[in-house]
């Protein structure tokens, strides 16, 4: 169905290098890895939103490596869901059909059909501002599926909602998959999410695939142990500077940190949480990646954690913990008190609460 061969994408300080992976028709593939591993870059390249330096991409036996996104027959759902704020839910779902010049009655029939399957008929006249996070994800998925794509590409679809909503969405996606049997590539940093949804898992780390295959086999693969490591979150406190588009900007000891949330107002105290496995560490400041948060730190120590090394990083008084493989630590080649950069996505940073 989708085959990637010899793919290389270069940006400053990072190379995505994927020898081969494939997704069969009707298969739900989850690409899993920590922040900074190149998951979003890979998805964008398959979608045609980013050019590769070399390699080939095939869809249904046809090479599409040089085709624009609209010629690939795929639907892409970004982390932000990107619903049109001035349109109703019906209009958002219908948008892809209308730009394909589908007749008006056929558009209505197909929108109502997918709305019934997605259980969102009562939302069709609302606008995105009137929807919850879980409802927005359903609408984004409905908009992707209504055009009958060859496959749906989902970038961290559960990362911007709370735990309860994420659990409901996981159950919904599993039920929808049984009903429709669609092909999907789903990106996540969460191993439990991957294990629950995937027919097959591909583990991406530092731009390379460590392993891939059926879910149970990959979950038992020693090469993927570091990716499945779970740990306690890091708690950070700061002051809200502002918010927009579902993100809140918080001053953490002089560092601007973006997190998921928008219910805070300027001047409020904010408490954020991030997991150590979501923090990537670089010796030089990275450019061109999808992560929005880059904190200049000093390495103050490290601890062995089985197959992993836990790095202790001082960001002007706030101590961060990052989990990296032994090989990555050796490649980083830094000593105590040297400068490093802690990098993590806004979608991986959770707003726990705000207060006056």
State the gist of this model.
The chain has 356 residues and is of the alpha+beta class. The protein has helices at 39-47, 89-98, 104-118, 133-145, 163-180, 191-197, 215-219, 326-332; strands spanning 2-11, 14-23, 28-32, 54-59, 62-63, 74-77, 151-155, 184-188, 200-205, 208-214, 234-244, 247-252, 255-260, 269-274, 280-282, 293-305, 308-315, 318-325, 339-344, 350-355.
Describe it.
This protein is an alpha+beta fold and 356 residues long. It has two domains: 2-224, Rossmann fold; 234-355, RNA polymerase II/Efflux pump adaptor protein, barrel-sandwich hybrid domain (OB fold (Dihydrolipoamide Acetyltransferase, E2P)). 24% of the residues lie in helices and 37% in strands. The protein has a six-stranded mixed beta sheet with strand order 6-7-8-3-9-10, with helices on both faces. The chain has a five-stranded antiparallel beta sheet with strand order 13-12-11-14-20, with no helix packed on it. Strand 9 (200-205) and strand 10 (208-214) form a beta hairpin. Helix 4 (133-145) packs parallel to helix 5. The radius of gyration is 21 Å and the shape is globular.
